[in-house]
Write a structure and sequence with these properties.
By secondary structure, the chain is α+β, with helices and mostly antiparallel strands. The protein has helices spanning 5-11, 50-56, 58-74; strands spanning 18-21, 25-29, 37-43, 82-85, 101-105. The structure holds guanosine-5'-monophosphate and zinc ion.
């Protein structure tokens, strides 16, 4: 997708601080971190959201989850724990329509939701 921000990060056209990569996934630091560690984990291939990824290629979804766990381990989050979120659609406030897992940690994260 030529107009997709995260496809541009995959292509190296937009800079990002990459912390982990595999043949099929990429993980980079969120530009506006909401926790001491805030990493976005994406499939390299464009899928707009979790539902589209799950429908098209659930195995790739599993690779994204495996990458989340690998980054959590590498960032030192595994012992104390961390939170993983996929925002999907308007009510979740999804802003970038290339599916991504938010990996948040490095401090107690408070209640799950603030509504
Ligand atoms: P969403 O709201 O779609 O779940 O999350 C999108 C995330 O992408 C936000 O947390 C936002 O800070 C992050 N983001 C937006 N633009 C950029 C960018 O250019 N680079 C990086 N690294 N993160 C971005
Ligand atoms: Zn994309």
């Amino acid at each position: 997708m030529s107009d997709c921000l995260f496809c541009k990060i995959v292509a190296g056209e937009v800079p990002a601080t990459v912390v982990h990569e595999t043949d099929h996934t990429l993980a980079f630091r969120d530009i506006a971190p909401k926790a001491p560690v805030h990493v976005l984990v994406i499939p390299r291939e464009h899928h707009p959201d979790l539902a589209a990824l799950a429908a098209a290629d659930p195995g790739l979804g599993g690779q994204v989850l495996a990458a989340v766990a690998a980054v959590a381990e590498a960032e030192g989050l595994a012992a104390d724990g961390y939170r993983t979120m996929f925002n999907t659609g308007r009510n979740a406030g999804q802003e970038v329509f290339h599916v991504h897992a938010h990996l948040l940690g490095g401090a107690p994260l408070g209640p799950m939701l603030a509504i």
